[in-house]
Every structure is written in structure tokens, then in C-alpha cells.
Design goal:
Length: 285
Amino acid sequence: MTALFALATSLLWGLADFGGGLLTRRMPALTVVVVSQAVAASVLGVVVLVTGAWSEAGPRLWFAFAAGLIGPIALLSFYKALALGPMGVVSPLATLSVAVPVGVALVFGERPGPVQAAGIAVAVAGVVLAGGPELRGAPVRRQAILLTLVAALGFGTVFALIAEASATVTGLFLALFVQRVTNVVVGGAALGAAVRRGAPALPQGGLPWRSLPALAFVGLADVAANGTYAFAAQHGPVTVAAVLASLYPVVTALAARGFLSERLRPVQAAGAGLALVGTVLLATG
């Protein structure tokens, strides 16, 4: 079950990243974050009311609140790093986020077996290669590297926090709702500050209403991924859940191949193959 839910996390995050990347070509990244997360918060609010999840309120929600504070910072750092380029460097570096939850699990005594340890090494190598690291070409700006490392630290911290935010399914609904409301507040404040500095909140011509379904998909896929990851981490080794959940760059690359006809470079194809091998080792170890 851990492997299944962690792989579902990769699928959902990979598709959300792909959709978010497309949307940021049409509108400001902050607007994409705020609108998509607002949709997710609205849906979760209904779920919380219907399931009576308010009764699960407790100290654990501070983990969700912290994840909500950190998430938008990590996401905006990642988008800005992508804008500074190149994606073939930024994307693999961002996968270093897996080091945070794995490190936390190891500190608290979790020890993977030999087969799982081999699977972790192979899968992480595959994820990095699947991002298509650029070994030659124009030098990478130091700011892009710094922003990517900030994003990786933030994503990894959210991984660790959301896994501790609840102990039950209904509690998870409430935790995700708190996280998303915090995301919207933090993102909205950042968007307001950007507008005051003269940055546009919307593209020319106003909000493209035809993009609302895509924005909703990005927000809902992201929140669903947080939920499946929390479930995976709570019902199995965090080291396995975190590594399998970090396979989302493979999904993004395959989505670009399928929907945009982007050709996979040999190093990306090799990385996808290694990631698959690592997944098998983790699932069977």
C-alpha cells in the first residue's frame, strides 16, 4: 500500500507540475498559485463540513499550518528558478527535496533493508537523470541554483510536516484544508505586495476563464498528492514513501512527451528506466 500511494503521489504531482508550468506561460506564477490553491481550499472546505472533520482539530494542525507557510515559498522559488533557467539543471536539483523526509526518518530510527537501500540509490539517480541534467552549455546563474536549493528544502520540509499533520483520514482532510487556506493567505499577501510594486496580477485581457478548469486541476491534483503521500508515509517506511513520491519529474517529462511532443533526451530515457528499476526494488524489498 505504501508503494501504491507513493506512486500515486508522483503521478499527481507530476501532472500538477506539468499543468502549472503550462499555465505560467499565460499568467503570473503567483496568480496560478493563489487561484489553484483557492479552488482546492474551497473543495476541501466542503469535504470538511460533510465529514465532520472539525472534530479532529488538535495540536497536530500546527504541522499543517507550518506546511502551508512553507509551501508557497518553495513553489515560488521553484518557478523563479525555472524562469532563470535552465530547466535541465533546475529540475534535477529540486529532487534533492527527498533528502529531508528521508533524513528525518533515519534520525528517528528508521532503517531500510539492503534491497530497499539499493532501490533508494537507484531511484534517486534515475530521478536526477530523468530531469535531463545539462552538463554542457551556458553557465547557470548562481541565483537560480540558490532558489532551486531553497525550493528543494521547502518541498522536503512540506513532505515531512504533512506526514505528521494527522493520524486519521478525516483528520487528514482537516489538515489539508488548513494547509491550503494558509497557502492562499501567504500567496495572496505575496501577490498583493507584487501588485503594489507594479507587477501585473493578470495577463492582458484579464483572467482567461477558459483556464479555470486547468487551474482547478492543478490545485486539486496537488492537494490529492499531499493526501496520498501522507497516507503512504503513515502506513509504511517513510524512506520508501519519500523516494517513490519523488519520481514526479519522470511523470512531468512523459507528459511533455505525450502532450507537447517533446522528445526525451537519451539521458532522460535512461533516468526513467533507472527510476522504474528503483521502484521495483523498493516495492519488493
